[in-house]
Amino acid sequence: MRVYLPDSQPIDISEKTSILGLVEKVIPKKTSLTVGAFLNKSQEISDLRTILQNEDHVHLVFLPSKEALEVVRHSSAHVMAQAVQELWPDVKVTIGPVIENGFYYDFDSPRSFHPEDLERIEIKMKEIIKQKWDVKKEIWSKQKAISIFKKMGEHYKVEIIEELNEPEVSVYQQGKWFDLCKGPHVSNLSQIGAVKVLRQSGAYWKGDENKTQLQRIYGTAFHTEKELKRHLKDLEEAAKRDHRKLGREMKLFYFSDLSTGHPFFTGAGTVIYNELKQFLRHKYYQYGYEEVITPQIFHSKLFTRSGHIQHFSENMYPVLKRWLQQEQAAGFRWLTDDDKKNKENKKQVELQESGKPNFTGALYDDKTKFPKGFSPKEQKMIHHSDLTFLKPMNCPGHCLLYSFQKKSYRELPWRVADFGRLHRREKTGVLHGLTRVNSMCQDDAHIFCTPEQLEQEIENLLKMFKDIYQQLGLDKYKIALSTRPEDFMGEDLIWNKAEAALSSVLEKSKIPFEIQAGEGAFYGPKLDLMFVDAMNRSWQLGTLQCDFNMPKAFNLKYVDKDNQEKTPILLHRAVLGSFERFIGVYLEHTGGHLPIWLSPVQVLLINISKDQEVYVKECANQMKSLGIRVETDVRGEKLGYKIREARLRRIPCMAVVGERERQSHSLSLRLRDGKNIQLKKDVFIKKILKIIQKRTLDMLELYRNTDQV
Question: Which residues participate in catalysis according to the annotation?
Fold first, then answer.
């Protein structure tokens, strides 16, 4: 057999040679540092015990690389589970995946874990690692695995194995403890460097709130103690910047159990919200977008046609006609199913005769009498005559809007933007402040274009993303190309074209990107823009999705230059994502120190004594008349107290007024960057207006032309 390493000649190996066996043959000095390999350009690390196949291309993963952390953390999760079961043998284990910057494990425990228990778990983990056990892999038949885990009382493992469509499963063992797992894992526990148990939370088995409630314990692992300490310091800073904490301090938003997952924005928070909208509206004008307003509620037929019923219904809010029984009791005759079929068929005939696009055709199955795609359980819950939904996305409504008037190729591309509210039903356990909500507003837009225009439109969108991000100071971001998921809509050929178009533009533009296999939307592949914040965390903000399927599903057409009807291509895009999520991310990135144009209060005027109160109010009125968001603090509190309170609210510019300032018509400025300057009142107003109008990130304009001070 023959395999290949990067930048090397082919290597001859015998059959049944593993990745580790290859290392022992070619570079034996690195045997103890090997933790796995990427095979044949796969994005997943293969376990070092994997048997190589003829013509495999092998990219080895060694300690202490960044890639090796995934394997180290995966093995650390097993060490955590072993530690928990050694401390409390009656605890049952479920799953323990690697996540960004760490790992977790879910446990079914008869007792609640407390903070002191987490310390005990960490101590036990370190004891286990010191044993330096080899990690052994065994392949068991499905029947053997079920039998053994049943005897152990590990019914969660039994359930996982029974659902696997495989005749065999892999089991990893360290010391006497073992667990079901597909890997990858280290060869010896000594390859695990520094570990830390972080926190705990609740979880549900398989994420289903109707199933057993579990206890989730989070941990992390690094190659060295130094790296771990740096990460823990970042976590401390992240806790200080938590947008939920900042939101309370700055009085921006609140939540209520009476409307779970739906944020309340205060006057101050609404300022940020609206300023972002105005900023984007200005950009929309520059980039040729038309803003529209579409309805909030649609009949299920629309979402059946778009594919959302079949692929997204568990995240949608149904709106039922609860008053139906009362209407029937009052003598109102509701249409029978036969009435509805006849009505739908009549509509279809009329549409065919009129030549209009058919987006309201008969969509009901004769057998089920329900919109196609509904499960028997859903059919029992909701009758189709009562079925409407709050919209989770704008794209189906924009397809309807496109269909109202036949378009020529000269009218394309048609770029349509919508700030309408969206509603998506999330499980309670995944809601998290503003970054995961049930109700949101996206900076959502759709572009209908011809195949010839597609790549140029993708290029234009990437330029728009860069332009907006730079103005917001979001210069550090990565791009991921997400390809076809398992549950997808449409044909393979169409998906291949869409994926090729996105990758072609990125390659031509020399923009680096990574591939996330199987992470695309159900209707098309997408580009996700992953912003890296001040604490080096990645957040998905912008997205661009290439969709050949939905225009076809809605029978959308345009007339080309040869007077032939063609189907347009649809690009879905958002730059910031949802305003809610973006505000949460941006607050944490900036620590609440927003650019002055976004700040709810831009200037706070503070008097030193009652003698300056009239002058302070005069200054405030002048600034308000010019559109500056200004407040006054003329309370009888001490100056230091007023300043500390303003800093807690992250007000960017405090103007202190004493007797000298009053008499000279000036302001003594205390800026959030720690600098103090004094300017004539009119000079300050002129400068601050310039900063606000240009939407600049800093206040350097205040320091220029000091001869005017």
Answer: 395, 424, 442, 444, 446, 526, 572
Phi and psi dihedrals of 548, rounded to 5? -95, -10
Q: How many CB atoms lie within 10 A of CB 25?
A: 14
Structural tokens at position 326: 């009362």
Q: What is the largest CA-CA distance in the chain?
A: 93
Give bridge partners of residue 214 from the DSSP assignment. Answer: 203
Torsion of CA 203, 204, 205, 206, to 10 degrees: -100
As a whole number of angstroms, the distance between CA 379 and CA 381 comes to 5
Q: How many residues does the chain have?
A: 709
pLDDT averaged per 10 residues in sequence order, the chain, 709 residues: 88 92 93 94 91 93 94 97 96 93 94 94 97 96 95 95 93 96 95 96 85 94 95 90 93 91 94 96 95 92 84 80 45 46 55 45 37 47 63 93 91 95 83 91 94 91 93 90 83 84 86 84 85 87 88 92 93 94 94 94 93 93 95 90 90 92 92 85 93 88 59
Cα 489 from Cα 521, distance rounded (Å): 9
> What is the distance between the alpha carbons of residues 507 and 502, in angstroms, rounded to a whole number?
9
What is the DSSP secondary structure assignment for residue 52, as one 8-state letter? P
Query: What local confidence, expressed as pLDDT, does residue 345 receive?
Result: 56
Directed axis angle between helix 579-590 and helix 267-286, to 10°?
Answer: 110
Predicted local confidence at residue 277, as pLDDT = 95
How many CB atoms within 10 Å of residue 47? 24
Give, in order, the Cα–Cα distances in Å from 470 to each of 89, 209, 427, 595. 54, 41, 34, 13
Contact, 166 vs 63, CB < 8 A?
A: no
User: What is the predicted pLDDT for the residue at 365?
Assistant: 38
> How is residue 490 written in tokens?
């449409």
Query: How far is the C-alpha of 237 from the C-alpha of 143, rounded, in Å?
Result: 49
N-to-C CA span, the chain? 80
Give the integer Cα–Cα distance in Å for 544 and 547: 10
Note whether 572 and 520 are within 8 A (CB).
no
Take residue 235 and report the two structure tokens written for it. 């976590």
- Residue 233: in which H helix or E strand, if any? helix 225-241
Q: How far apart are CA 301 and CA 371, in angstroms?
A: 7
Instruction: Please tell me the pTM assigned to this model.
Output: 0.78
Whole-angstrom Cα distance, residue 325 to residue 311? 31
Q: Are 514 and 478 in contact (CB under 8 A)?
A: yes
Structure-token match 């409390």, residue found: 88
Is the distance from CB of 193 to CB of 64 less than 8 angstroms? yes
CA distance 260 to 411: 43
- The SS3 call for residue 518 is coil
Q: How many CB atoms lie within 10 A of CB 79?
A: 28
DSSP state of 372: T
> CA–CA distance from 204 to each of 93, 154, 529, 658, 663 (Å)?
13, 17, 30, 60, 67
Per DSSP, what are the bridge partners of residue 449?
569
Query: How far apart (Å, rounded) are the C-alpha atoms in residues 416 and 568?
Result: 14
Letter string b/e over residues 166-184, b meaning 16 or more CB atoms within 10 A of that residue's CB: eeebbbbebeebbbbbebb
Between helices 454-471 and 267-286, what is the axis angle to 10°?
A: 140
Give the C-alpha distances (Å, rounded to integers) separating 450 from 357, 418, 567, 570, 583. 18, 21, 8, 9, 35
3-state secondary structure 523-585: CECEEEEEEECCCCCEEEEEEEEEECCHHHHCCCCEECCCCCEECCEEEEEEEEEEHHHHHHH
The two structure tokens encoding residue 565: 């009807």
Q: Which two tokens stand for residue 377?
A: 């359980």
Q: What Å distances lie between residue 652 and 5, 263, 331, 485, 521, CA to CA?
A: 55, 25, 65, 46, 40
